[in-house]
Specification:
Blueprint lengths: L2 E5 L5 H10 L15 H14 L4 E8 L2 E10 L7 E8 L8 H17 L3 E7 L3 H9 L3 E12 L2 E10 L1
Helix pairs in contact: 1-2
The protein binds coenzyme A (COA).
């Protein structure tokens, strides 16, 4: 399977909307709008285009010619702005084919090169073993567990912070 990352274009808007409305949200932040509308996509695509290569890198994930997910690294404030925060999502029918692992490998290389980062961090909600495996396979290590650090659907959940140096 060929897995590639591409900068988002306006042509991807329908696929972005479909992705965000279909993605399994069990372990995602409530900040992702639901339902995800055309206005949400317009705002997000504009934000990504404006900040690309400066405040972050945002990519669509493609597998054998299909847009199957989204992945990004955004520069965090503080720490001399040398730390980035990783996020990703893949459509359920495409899980467990190695796509997440390969996409994380590629985006970390892009983010390090284009943003001059020295660390990449990400937060995983308790129970998201598949995401932890993706990170482990890319050399991330568990930095800390924050007990009850996030509220999702009215329930306090633990968050595990992973770090790539
Ligand atoms: C997390 C996610 C990106 C993983 O993508 P993926 O393409 O399935 O990942 P890969 O195929 O590269 O690797 C998945 C690994 O997790 C393992 N795995 C999958 N489901 C699992 C489960 N329920 N329990 C334990 N391991 C699991 C797979 O076996 C594989 O590990 P292995 O290579 O050692 O066998 C995908 O599940 C997703 O998009 N989830 C919804 C959004 C999300 O949670 N994003 C991350 C927020 S931190």
């Amino acid at each position: 399977m060929t897995i590639t990352l591409h900068a988002w274009t306006l042509d991807d808007k329908p696929a972005l909307i479909a992705l965000c409305n279909a993605v399994d949200r069990t372990f995602l932040s409530d900040r992702l709008p639901e339902p995800y509308t055309e206005a949400d996509a317009n705002w997000w695509l504009g934000m990504a285009a404006e900040n690309e290569g400066k405040e972050g890198v945002w990519r669509s994930i493609w597998a054998d010619g299909n847009l199957v997910g989204s992945i990004s690294v955004e520069r965090k404030d503080g720490d001399e702005n040398k730390v980035g925060e990783l996020g990703y999502m893949i459509l359920t029918p495409w899980w467990s084919k190695g796509i997440g692992t390969e996409a994380v490998s590629q985006i970390c290389e892009i983010a390090t090169r284009e943003l001059g980062l020295v660390q990449i961090t990400t937060m995983v909600f308790e129970g998201n073993r598949a995401s932890e495996r993706v990170l482990e396979k890319n050399g991330f290590r568990l930095e800390e567990t924050k007990t009850g650090a996030v509220v999702k659907g009215g329930k306090a959940m633990d968050v595990r912070v992973y770090l790539l140096v």
